[in-house]
Amino acid sequence: MTNQNQPIYIISEDSKRTSGKDAQRNNIAAAKLVAETIRTTLGPKGMDKMLVDGMGDIIISNDGVTILNEMQIEHPIAKMLVEVAKTQEDEVGDGTTTAVVFAGELLKNAERLLDLEIHPTVISKGYRIAAEKSQEILNEMAEDINNEDLDLLTNIAITAMTGKGAESSKDVLSKISVGAVNHIVDSNGDIDIDNIKIEKKVGDSTGNSELIKGIVLDKERVHSGMPKLVKDAKILLIDIPLELKDTEIDAKIQINDPSQLQSFVEQEEKILKNMVEKIAKSNADVLFCQKGIDEVAQYNLSKKGIYAVRRVKESDMKKLARASGAKIVSSLKDINPSDLGFAGSVEEKKIGDEEMTFVVDCHNPKSVTILLRGGTEHVVDEVERAMMDAIGDLIAVLKTKKVVAGAGAPEVELAKKLREFANSLNGREQLAVQSFADSVEIIPRTLADNSGLDPIDVLAELKVKHDAGEKWAGIDVASGTVKDAWKLGVLEPLKIKTQAISSASEVAELILRIDDIIASDRSSSSNSAMPPMGGMQSYE
Fold it and tell me: Among 3.30.1240.10, 3.50.7.10, 3.80.30.20, 3.40.50.1970, what is the CATH number of 214-364?
C-alpha cells in the first residue's frame, strides 16, 4: 500500500519557490527598494550617488539610468525596474528617475489594496484604466510649441540640466544644445540624433564648451610634415589599411646577401608609394583612414601635401561621410571623383594638451559637434550626461510639439483630474484609480522632500492652488514656495510624462500579476540564481 502523504516533486529539489502573497509582497519590496535607492536624486536639489566598481573606477552621478546600470542589480523584479529606466532613456533621454520612482509608488500603494483583499487582476485593470485616462488628461493639459520658440526651448534645456553637474554653466550649455538640435532638423522636420557628436576634453571650465558646425575628431595628422590647415578640402574616406598585409599563413623568406634585403625593402616601399600615388591622382588633399597608415606611406602623403588621419572610428567615418558627402572607399583601384567629399576647411587645433582635427563648413551642415570641457574626468562625464538629457528633451518636444510645466505641477493637476474620473466609476477598480492618483503625487512629494521642505504642507498648498484653477502651480525649490512653474521657465516635454506613466504602469501591472516564482539553482557553487526575495544585490 502506497503512502498517501509521500511528496511529489515536479521541479528540481534545488529550485526555490515562492508563491501566493509571499511572492507578491517580496516582489513589491524589491521594486520599492530600487525606487527608494534613486528617489533622493530627483529634482534640482537631488543628491548624487558615488558608484565604485571592482576595479576602483568611480562614477558620480544623479542620472537614474546611469546609477541603476552601474549597480549590477541581480534581483529579477528589480531588473524589471531597471528596464523601465532604460526604456525611458531610449524613448526620451530624460525622466528615468521619475519613471522608476513612480513605478515603485504604484506597487507600494497596490500593497495597501492587497491588504484590503482586492484581487491583483482588479488592481491591474484599474491601473490600466487610469494610465489610459492619464494619457488623455496630459495631452489636453499640454501647450503647443515649435522650433521658433527659442526662449521656451532654452528653458526646456535649462530645466533638464538643473540639479546636475552642468548646472553652474546651464545658460551656456542650454544655448549650445538648442543650437545643435535646431541645426540638425531637416526640411521634413525629422531629427537624427546621430548627427550630433559629443567630444569631451578635460582641462578647462565647463563654461568654455562650444558648438562646432562640423565634425571634430580626437585625432591629429599622422606626420608633422603635413599641412596643419587645408582650405576647400577634397576629402577621401577609406576603410582599408595603407599598410602591407601580413600573409594569411606562416611564411619564411630566405635572404642570402645584403642586396636581396635591400631589394625586398625597396619593393615594400614601392607598393606603399603606389598606394599614395593612387590617392594623389584622385585629387584628394585630405585623407581619413579607418585603419592604420604605414610610416613610409605617412612620409609620402606628407610629400604630396595631403593631410591624413588614421584609425578613425567607424561611427565617425559615417558622420564624416554624411557631413562632407564623401563615400567610404574599400579599394584604391577605382577611386572616382564622385567618391570625394568637401569641407570648407580641415584644420588641426590644440585643445588642452592634445591636438584635434576640425572639419567644418561642409556640404551638409546638418552634422554638428559639441565640444564639452570640464576640470576633471568625472565633471566632464556628468556634463555629458546632462547634455544628453537636454538634447533628448529638445528632440522629444520638437517631435511631439507639446510641452508642460515642471516642478510637480502636471502631476498634481493629473492626480486631481484622475480623482474626479474615479468618482464616475463603479466597482473596486475605482479604488485602484484613486491609488494611481495618489501614486502620481510621489513626484511633487519627493521634490519637496529633496528640497528640505515639508511635503504635507507643500502638497496641501499645491492642491489649493490647483483647485482654484492654477494648473501650472508648482514648487519653487529656490524660495520654498508654490509659484507658477510656467512663468518660472520650468518646462518639460510632454513625452517625459506620457512615457513615464506608460512604462511605469505597464511594469506595475506585470509585477502584480505574478503569484509564483520558481528559481532554479544554476550551479552548486552559487547560493541561488535569485537573491532573497525583497533584497537586491549590488557590488562595488
Answer: 3.50.7.10
